[in-house]
Each structure stands twice: as structure tokens, then as C-alpha cells.
Amino acid sequence: MHQFLAKCDEALAEISAQGRYRRFVALEKLADRFPYYSVTMEGKTRDILVWSANDYLAMGTDPAVIEAAIDAARRMGAGAGGTRNIAGSSPVHVALEEELADLHGKDAALLFTSGYVSNQASLTAILNSLPDWHVFSDAQNHNSMIVGIKGAKNPTVHVFKHNDMADLERLLAAAPPDAPKMIAFESVYSMDGDIAPMHAICDLAEKYNAITYLDEVHAVGMYGAHGGGVSERDGVAHRITIIEGTLAKAFGCHGGYIAADFKVCDYIRSFAAGFIFTTALPPPTVAAALASIRILKADNARRARLFDRAETLKQKFKAAGLPVMESTSHIIPLMIGDAAKATEVSMRLIREFGMYATPINYPTVPRGTERLRFTPGPKHTDAMMDDLVAALRTILLGVPTPTTASA
Predict the structure, then answer these.
(1) Per-residue pLDDT tens for 290-328?
(2) Is residue 369 predicted with pLDDT exceeding 80?
(3) Confidence of residue 403 (pLDDT cuts 50, 70, 90)
(4) How far apart are CA 93 and CA 229, in angstroms?
(5) How many C-beta atoms surround the C-beta of residue 262 within 10 A?
(6) How far apart are CA 375 and CA 56, in angstroms?
């Protein structure tokens, strides 16, 4: 056996023994019944109530969004047909970039094939622009940001303690005064559900002459008067150099983007390999995202419903004595503390109660902090929540389950 194949066997056996081997659950989204999905397991097909989807506002099943995709597919076909440089740039791509720039109050925006790629490609391109960058990265930044930073040739990387402004300033103060500096951080951190101190970070960036790179993927569409994210909600978008976001979560579609000054977007457009050498987003996807953004810019009621649902579930978890982690956002983590147990709880929810919540294991979170992640949306009712709480009390606390109420 080749050494690599032997390594595959060894590594897979190791993560399986640790209880963190990942098995995908093939869930078919039911557009007319979301947040219900259909799943076939052990030869039986049934409906499952999903609690962990990133389609936070149910825009992926909105009739207007679906119709926009269908219309674009009929007019322009299923795919873009090339990179943006090779027949892959259409008027709908341009319109979406203009809409995203407006959403964040920036001069321009640039589309990428995913949020992961927008972080990876943009950060690498920026940090390759000068020879002596110092980048200050939050300890809980997403893997896409870490890979983007590490992909650059030779930046000096400083990792500051999560949301710790004293530690960030200590590192900034120790760096060479004339070196180009970047502070890279997120708004909503998806594993703990906490939020960055925006004003404090911007104050430090201005004090130490650093640019700011903000990942808003778990906030766009949901926070702010028009869905511009936490930076809009907190009134700091104009102080952020580059805002990165996704079309795949609250907007319910697919793709990633950055928004910034025109010259910044133009530079990244011209030098980021992850933009230059990949096929453009399909026109139906772009048209759907454009419709979604335009709807959400004016739909504060949907945002308000999301936060009401999140707060309601947090309070129900607390009242039931479940190990809910403190969260200041719409994301609700439930601490389990063991990889095998987290997977077991998730599978019992499916098999015994017809519900699904994603188990989050290492390396996504540190060992010993494994959890389930809940993201209730506008269509999750109180009755659904009561059934979920009862199921979790049975699984985690051994409390007998009452008769199911929701449908």
C-alpha cells in the first residue's frame, strides 16, 4: 500500500476513535415547508425539523427569490460560461455588486464564488501587496481568514486574544510604527455567538494607523436598519476599510463578496488569484441574491422576528436547565463537552424526535468544548421550541418526554 493510502487509513481511524468522524446527513430542503427537510435513514423517509440551517431568514425559500432565479435561468442559462474575464460577467453581476456597495455605504463591491474564497483570496492579495505587513488576527477568526493570511508570502502575524482590546493594543504598540498594519476580525463569531467591539477596534486602528478587515458573514441581512451587518447597526461601516460578506446565509443563496473603496476592490480584482482564475457565479444565483438583498433592505419585520425567536429559545433553554452558552447574537450554542456525545445527541434528536441540530467538534472548536449549534429563524414556532426543549431534556437530563405538540 502506498504511504499516502496508509496515512488515510490511520488518520480516519483516529478521528473515528475520537468520536469526531463526520458523517453527512443527506437532508432535502422542503421549500414550501421550511424549516422542515426530508431525510431518508435506515430505509425510511421522514420529515425532519432542522434547527441549524444558515438560511437564517428563510430567504432561500422565498417565492420572489426563487422566481428571480428561474427567470434568470430561462434568459441566461444555468451557468456563467467562464470567468469574469472570459464571458462570465453579465449585467446582473454588475447590478449585484452595485447593490452590495450601496448596502455597506462603500464605493464598490466585488463578487467571489463563496465567502470562503472571498476571505482567502482577498487577504492573500492584500498581504502580498507590500513586503512588511503586520496583521493582527482575532484568535477565533474563521479558517478562511487564517488560510488567507497564511497564504501570503511573509506577513508578520500577531494573534490577539478573542475580543480582548488590551491584548490587541499591546501587540499594536509593540509593532514597528511605520510598518503597514491590518486588524482582521469578525462581527458575529458563529461558534460562541458573541460580537466584536466594533468602536474599540476602529479606535485602535486609527490610533496605530491600521486598516481594518471585517468578516460580516453571520451578520449581513440580519443586523442594521437595512441588513448591512453589525457595522451598520453600530454606525461604524464608514470606519471599516474592507467589509466581507456572504450571500449564502441570511440572503439564502450562494457566493461571497467584499465591499470597499473602488481602488481597493479594483486592486483585489486585478491581483487575487481566487477571483481571476475561477468561473463566475451562475446568473440564476446572482439574480436570486440580488432579489433577496433588495427585499431584506426594506424588511425590518423579518429581522425583528428572527431576534424574537432567538431570544425566546435562549430563555426556554435556560428555564429548562439546559447547558446553553451565553450569546449576544442570534446563534445559540448548547455546551456538550465531548465529541462522541455531541454526535450521539444529534443522532438521537433525528432518530427519536425528528429534529436536527449540527454537532460542532474539533477542529472547529477546541477539544472539550464540543457543542450543538441552534439558529432559530422566523418560521420556528413556540410549539416547535417546546418540543425541542422536551427532547433535549430527555436526552441530556433523563426527563421523560411529554406528548409532541408541534406539527
Answers:
(1) 999 999 999 999 999 999 999 999 999 999 999 999 999
(2) yes
(3) low
(4) 21
(5) 12
(6) 7
Assess contact for 296 and 57: CB atoms under 8 A: yes
> Is-contact 247 110, C-beta < 8 A?
no
Do the bridges between strand 358-360 and strand 371-374 make them parallel or antiparallel, or are there none, so unpaired? antiparallel
Cell of 119: 476571505
**Which residues lie below 8 Å from residue 267, measured CB to CB, with a gap of 6+?**
125, 129
| Residue whose C-alpha cell is 474592507 | 242
Q: Are strands 256-260 and 358-360 parallel, antiparallel or unpaired?
A: unpaired
Percent of the chain with pLDDT over 90: 92
pTM: 0.94
Which alpha helices (DSSP H) does 214-368 contain, by range?
Answer: 230-233, 262-271, 273-276, 283-297, 300-319, 339-353
Q: Give the C-alpha separation, 286 to 292, whole Å.
A: 10
23-44: per-residue pLDDT in tens?
Answer: 888 889 999 999 999 998 888 8
The residue with greater pLDDT, 401 or 273, is 273
Residue carrying C-alpha cell 441549524: 52
DSSP string, 71-131: HHHHHH-SS--S-TTTT---HHHHHHHHHHHHHHT-SEEEEES-HHHHHHHHHHHHHTSST
3 state DSSP class of 310: helix
Return the sign of the alpha-carbon dihedral for residues 176, 177, 178, 179: positive
Please check whether residue 92 is in contact with residue 72, taking contact to mean a CB–CB distance below 8 angstroms: yes
CB under 8 A, 24+ apart: contacts of 357-363 = 357/51, 357/52, 358/52, 360/191, 360/333, 361/19, 361/20, 361/22, 362/18, 362/20
**Contact present, 258 and 229 (Cβ < 8 Å):** no
Cα 339 off chain centre by: 22
Across the chain, mean pLDDT equals 96
Instruction: Give pLDDT tens digits for 256-303.
Output: 999 999 999 999 999 999 999 999 999 999 999 999 999 999 999 999
Residues with a catalytic annotation lie at: 249
- At position 33, the amino acid (one-letter code) is R
Q: Tell me the helices (H) and strands (E) count for the chain, helix number first.
A: 14, 14
